[in-house]
Design brief:
Number of helices: 7
Structural class: mainly alpha
Shape: elongated
Distance between the termini: 40 Å
Number of strands: 0
Order of helices and strands: HHHHHHH
Number of domains: 1
Strand content: under 5%
Largest sheet: none
């Protein structure tokens, strides 16, 4: 049975990959602009220092910057771990800070775009580059063969 990847022309695959990269970048840049604007200018957090807000809400977004600029699929994949924090933050504020609904919805929109974009961009770009995660079954078979060869 043929997979979708075998049926999709290469040009269409690249267009799909670029679309997901755009989603990821829109979400990423959106969060990079929204978070400092929101937390420092629009609605400063009382009782929190600038350093605390920067290190908790902005610094994590800067961690994948180099890999995203260098277009590394692996960076897009692990950036999803960072974006989970913004989902948690957004959903928590959705519940407790309804007066900031617009900013919360923007955070959730950008986090969603980044998550979906990063997930599928890493997958499609990794396939284009020939990168793949080996199946556990293959790993175990290789380890067993190496172990058997070591006994002889």
């Amino acid at each position: 049975m043929n997979s979708d990847n075998e049926l999709t022309p290469p040009v269409a695959k690249k267009a799909i990959t670029k679309r997901f990269q755009r989603f990821a970048l829109i979400g990423y840049v959106g969060l990079l602009i929204l978070m400092p604007t929101w937390l420092f200018l629009i609605s400063p957090r009382e009782g929190h220092s600038v350093g605390f807000i920067f290190s908790v809400y902005i610094l994590p977004l800067l961690l994948p910057l180099k890999g995203i600029i260098q277009d590394k699929p692996y960076t897009y994949a692990w950036a999803n771990f960072i974006v989970m924090f913004y989902f948690i933050h957004g959903f928590t504020l959705l519940w407790v800070a309804q007066e900031q609904l617009l900013w919360v919805l923007l955070e959730l929109l950008f986090a969603s775009l980044m998550f979906i974009g990063c997930t599928y961009y890493a997958r499609h770009r990794g396939q284009e580059l020939g990168l793949k995660i080996r199946k556990l079954k293959e790993e175990l078979a290789e380890e067993k063969a190496a172990h058997e060869a070591g006994k002889k």
